[in-house]
Amino acid sequence: MKVAVKYCGGCNAAYRREEVEEILSKHFEIFYSNEGNLVVCISGCKKGCAVEGVKGEVLHVDGRVSEEELMRMVEKKLKSLR
Asked: N or C: which end of the chain has fewer CB within 10 A?
């Protein structure tokens, strides 16, 4: 299963977006791409520009999230792909 990460431009980041990637990298090998079985789009605000141009299943993260909640969200998306 290929889990990719795509960041927004960070023009209006309301939190430290790298925290999401740090959590994901504990559990998955991360690729930086617009394509993957699951693309985790990490946006700094609610606008969601990171989602633009993505091919594949998207999980959009637009704010602080606990490790447990993020992993629940990822597992739910991955199960839906099987």
From this structure: C
